[in-house]
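hey
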């Protein structure tokens, strides 16, 4: 990284840069023992700033000049001392570090040494005037404050490891705090002068010659002290932490990036106020983006007790533990070369993170096996299984009120997805998951229905009975195709069976779906329910209702706000009769061996259809199919 054409800037013009490194101050004020020599740290009388007396003594002995390298206040402890006869007066005070005595001196405070001040001790009286330049700091000066003439902040841009620029603040003091000023997470300490936050990706690099600190809002390879011009290599191989994948590394950082706030940080000016106000500025600018839960990189070593619970054409689902909590882990087969499109999908689903009826996604990890290296998604574990299993095991006891409650939650989740201008693409009962003893239903597998290494949007994956007919005609997945799938889930709630379970899922079934074949509607289904379901199945995607309209309708039914209440009471009576007689029981339906309910590539089927002459005629005649021809 080159540092050229820079205008010289001295952040502490009244202080000199020390010729030797200053090791007696820690970069983490919470540490008990000295990083350099191992001795126990002492505390300054004010503000509990830690320092090592042995390393300070060595430093003083190594220096013979009286240059000011520190803004320090030293007083006497009134202890008899052979070096100072008579004993120093109780009012003795000095700012010359060379006059510090290990026997009779105490350091009251370092001015150019910042720690997070304990609120119980912050109202200690400080000097009203700056001891470096004489400027009045405050008429009534309480608490830790700095002089805006003597402590100057520089802001600007620096090149990141991804060839973009990120903001940098060059602070004129030694920052020994152990928490990020943006997100308040604990910092990770890399060396005795480097630390970073793996949550908000802010890096702190201190100069032990000048006691200055650079705060970098992103990952860079190097940084330079503005005072002494010394360059420091930054010891964070973030790309390697992300499995060596620069796309993932850049993506994770981008989720914590706010361009508007970054522009303000890069143009920061103190305007004559207390320089320490910069921390409040950082917190205010970044608190919103830092408070948002984002998908993180989770080390594979934190994932334990992997147990396969489902396998499909695109990957494997595991139950596992992470930090002593149950999680679900989705392995994407052949995902070593993960694509940017896959990360765009994850970013889209993350926008729905705080929605009640969308499964929570926590992070990404990678199998370290040198041959496999599959990427995995860590997400909320649905302890009560999926909707299909629930229907199959409990169908005879599931009343219409329960079915409507489930539909309300599902439609709410899908509405959120569509409001984010996102399409699910793989919406079926296996991706509707149960929590809290079947009282809460969430939508999972958002938009991840293609292989992780597939960057082509032309590849179509899905489960044939849930795929809208226009998709087989070459159209892209859309909100309308999601609504078609929703209609199939409505039907599944009425029967306890997956659609077309007794039919082979081949090109012949696809051809029949294109010309209007739909599952048979059961006798107990209320007319209003059947009509909504059929409108979702309409061969013309533009005639299907929006999920917003569906959500309003189902909510009306569930809350009994219109005249349909009687229809559902009668439907419940018919359901009871049919289930008691065994006429409505999914266990008695024989599954065809060619009925495949795992997501798979459908492109070969689509190619065959498009090459059939009659297929063109079928597509032309789709608008002639009238959904009212179905019998209830």
């Amino acid at each position: 990284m080159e540092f050229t054409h820079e205008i010289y800037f001295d952040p502490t013009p009244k202080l000199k840069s020390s010729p030797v490194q200053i090791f007696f101050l820690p970069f983490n004020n919470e540490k008990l023992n000295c990083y350099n020599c191992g001795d126990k740290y002492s505390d300054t009388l004010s503000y509990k700033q830690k320092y090592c007396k042995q390393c300070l003594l060595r430093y003083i002995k190594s220096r013979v000049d009286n240059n000011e390298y520190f803004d320090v206040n030293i007083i006497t402890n009134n202890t008899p001392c052979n070096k100072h006869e008579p004993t120093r007066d109780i009012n003795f005070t000095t700012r010359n570090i060379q006059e510090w005595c290990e026997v009779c001196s105490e350091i009251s405070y370092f001015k150019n040494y910042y720690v997070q001040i304990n609120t119980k001790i912050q109202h200690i009286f400080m000097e009203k005037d700056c001891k470096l330049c004489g400027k009045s700091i405050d008429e009534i000066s309480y608490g830790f404050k700095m002089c805006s003439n003597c402590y100057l902040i520089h802001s600007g841009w620096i090149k990141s490891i991804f060839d973009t620029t990120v903001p940098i603040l060059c602070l004129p003091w030694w920052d020994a705090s152990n928490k990020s000023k943006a997100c308040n997470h604990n910092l990770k300490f890399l060396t005795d002068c480097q630390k970073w936050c793996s949550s908000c990706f802010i890096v702190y690099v201190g100069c032990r010659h000048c006691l200055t600190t650079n705060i970098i809002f992103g990952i860079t390879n190097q940084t330079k002290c503005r005072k002494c011009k010394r360059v420091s290599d930054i010891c964070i191989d973030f790309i390697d932490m992300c499995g060596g994948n620069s796309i993932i590394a850049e993506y994770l950082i981008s989720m914590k990036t706010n361009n508007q706030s970054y522009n303000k940080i890069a143009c920061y000016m103190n305007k004559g106020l207390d320089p320490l106000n910069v921390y409040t500025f950082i917190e205010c600018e970044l608190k919103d983006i830092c408070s948002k839960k984002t998908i993180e990189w989770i080390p594979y070593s934190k994932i334990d007790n992997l147990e396969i619970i489902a396998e499909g054409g695109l990957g494997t689902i595991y139950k596992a533990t992470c930090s002593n909590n149950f999680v679900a882990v989705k392995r994407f087969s052949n995902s070593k070369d993960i694509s940017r499109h896959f990360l765009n999908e994850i970013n889209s689903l993350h926008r729905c993170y705080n929605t009640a009826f969308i499964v929570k996604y926590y992070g990404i990890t990678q199998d370290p096996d040198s041959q496999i290296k599959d990427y995995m998604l860590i997400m909320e574990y649905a302890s009560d299984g999926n909707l299909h299993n629930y229907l199959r095991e409990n169908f005879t006891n599931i009343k219409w009120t329960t079915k409507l409650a489930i539909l309300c939650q599902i439609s709410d989740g899908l509405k959120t997805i569509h409001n984010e201008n996102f399409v699910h693409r793989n919406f079926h009962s296996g991706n509707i998951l149960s929590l809290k003893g079947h009282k809460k239903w969430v939508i999972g597998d958002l938009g991840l229905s293609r292989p992780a290494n597939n960057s082509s949007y032309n590849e179509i994956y899905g489960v044939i009975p849930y795929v809208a007919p226009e998709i087989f005609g070459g159209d892209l997945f859309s909100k309308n195709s999601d609504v078609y799938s929703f209609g199939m889930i409505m039907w599944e709630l009425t029967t306890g069976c997956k659609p077309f379970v007794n039919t082979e899922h081949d090109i012949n079934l696809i051809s029949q779906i294109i010309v209007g074949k739909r599952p048979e509607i059961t006798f107990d289904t209320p007319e209003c329910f059947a009509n909504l379901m059929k409108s979702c199945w309409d061969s013309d995607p533009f005639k299907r209702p929006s999920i917003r309209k569906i959500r309003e309708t189902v909510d009306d039914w569930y809350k009994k706000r219109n005249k349909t209440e009687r229809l559902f009471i009668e439907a419940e009576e018919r359901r009871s009769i049919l289930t008691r007689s065994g006429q409505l029981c999914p266990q008695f339906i024989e599954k065809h061996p060619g009925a495949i309910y795992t997501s798979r590539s459908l492109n070969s089927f689509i190619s065959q259809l498009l090459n059939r002459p009659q297929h063109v005629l079928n597509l032309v005649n789709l608008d002639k199919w009238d959904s009212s021809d179905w019998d209830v």
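The chain has three domains: 154-291, 297-380, 387-629. The chain has a mean pLDDT of 84.
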